[in-house]
Amino acid sequence: MNMEISQAAAAWFKRELDLKNGDCIRLFPRYSSGGGLHPGFSLGIGTEAPGRPAIQVEQEGIVFYMEEQDLWYMEGYGLTIVYSEAEDDIEYKYEAKSVPGGVQV
């Protein structure tokens, strides 16, 4: 699994959540009536320090991460978070990843 956050998306998080350099954003699966990769779940966010991060990326001074126990949600996918100027909101873009042998999961 890989994770990318655009500079504009990171700036949106800083503005909307009043974050400062060094703050952290946890990404995690949560029960939801909406949809994401799995029916009944979507990607939630929280502002808390990592405990057992499995993946983390720093952008615009903010650390974005997922804990080990939450990686099941992204299995076989990469995540890119971008900013939509038209919506003044962020978008989660999921990309299926190939495994050795050319099979896509």
Q: What topology, given as strand order, has the largest sheet?
A: 3-2-5-4
The assigned structural class equals mainly beta
Shape label? globular
Number of strands: 9
Order of helices and strands: EHEEEEEEEE
Mean pLDDT: 90
Q: Which band does the percent of strand residues land in?
A: over 45%
Radius of gyration: 14 Å
Work out the helicity level: 10-25%
Low-pLDDT stretches? none
Q: What is the fold's blueprint, element by element?
A:
Elements: E1 3-5, H1 7-17, E2 24-31, E3 41-46, E4 53-59, E5 62-67, E6 77-84, E7 89-96, E8 98-99, E9 103-104
Parallel strand pairs: 1-6, 2-5
Antiparallel strand pairs: 2-3, 4-5, 6-7, 8-9
Structure, described:
By secondary structure, this protein is mainly β. The protein has one helix at residues 7-17, and strands spanning 3-5, 24-31, 41-46, 53-59, 62-67, 77-84, 89-96, 98-99, 103-104. The model has no long low-confidence stretch (mean pLDDT 90). This is FeS cluster biogenesis domain-containing protein. InterPro entries: HesB-like_dom_sf. It comes from Paenibacillus pseudetheri.
